[in-house]
């Protein structure tokens, strides 16, 4: 039996640097081009009735990059939110951010909070942006909050635990897409992808487009998700 349409797609948007390198451009140019793809994919996802789209924008490990690149990326996130927020509201998109906020600068935190507040009634698509996100940190934070809330060992099961993750309220991804051909998860949604289907393409993120997303969805639909059973 093949799978139905994916309700939730999570994407590891990788390959901006390599895209730029191939063209003798700076890595920054690659990131800028990547933002254009991101906009296209958000709009297309809404159009084709994807209900949840989760995008990996900056990992908790990406701070290891040169300071110049990190600060370029932070400025790019700020300017992108400023430019795109009205459009997202108009398109009925609900925006959420996951990741450790305390590690982010004040200006970006203010924008994140504002974007979440202004889009909270969005009904068309839930767009979750992983920013300063690490899957292991998310699990550690969940454990800390369970302890703070004095939840007893007997009360903890998978469902309760899930509610303590940053992604509480969002179903697990059906499909995880990674661009640029790396066969790894890079600390993304570790708990949530337990039974997600994986799709890895060599296409670099700035070259990814609607057709590539269609291709990934078509591939997903041909999969047989067994969840441990035998049908
Ligand atoms: C993904 O592109 C964007 C971020 C991690 C912010 P990369 O910058 O990782 O591109 P490559 O992997 O160096 O090509
Ligand atoms: C994963 O890409 C993080 C994002 C896409 C934001 P990386 O480029 O950081 O992953 P690694 O370092 O190649 O595993
Ligand atoms: Mg990369």
Automatic annotation (TrEMBL):
Q: Which CDD domains match?
A: Cis_IPPS (cd00475)
Entry superkingdom: Bacteria
Please tell me whether the keyword Metal-binding is annotated for this protein.
yes
List the catalytic residues. 14, 62 (proton acceptor)
This enzyme's EC code(s): 2.5.1.-
The GO terms this record gives for MF are: ditrans,polycis-polyprenyl diphosphate synthase [(2E,6E)-farnesyl diphosphate specific] activity; magnesium ion binding
Q: Which InterPro entries match?
A: UPP_synth-like, UPP_synth-like_CS, UPP_synth-like_sf
Cofactor(s), by name:
Mg(2+)
Which residues does Mg(2+) bind?
14, 197
Listed GO biological process terms:
polyprenol biosynthetic process
Supply the Gene3D superfamilies for this chain: Decaprenyl diphosphate synthase-like
Where substrate binds, per the record, is at 15-19, 27, 31, 59-61, 63, 65, 178, 184-186
Q: Which UniProt keywords apply?
A: Magnesium, Metal-binding, Transferase
Co-factor: note:
Binds 2 magnesium ions per subunit.
Q: Self-association or partners: how does it assemble?
A: Homodimer.
Q: Do you know which PANTHER family this protein is assigned to?
A: DEHYDRODOLICHYL DIPHOSPHATE SYNTHASE 2, DEHYDRODOLICHYL DIPHOSPHATE SYNTHASE FAMILY MEMBER
- Function per UniProt: Catalyzes the condensation of isopentenyl diphosphate (IPP) with allylic pyrophosphates generating different type of terpenoids.
UniProt record similarity statement: Belongs to the UPP synthase family.
Listed name of the protein? Isoprenyl transferase
Recorded source organism is: Candidatus Mcinerneyibacterium aminivorans
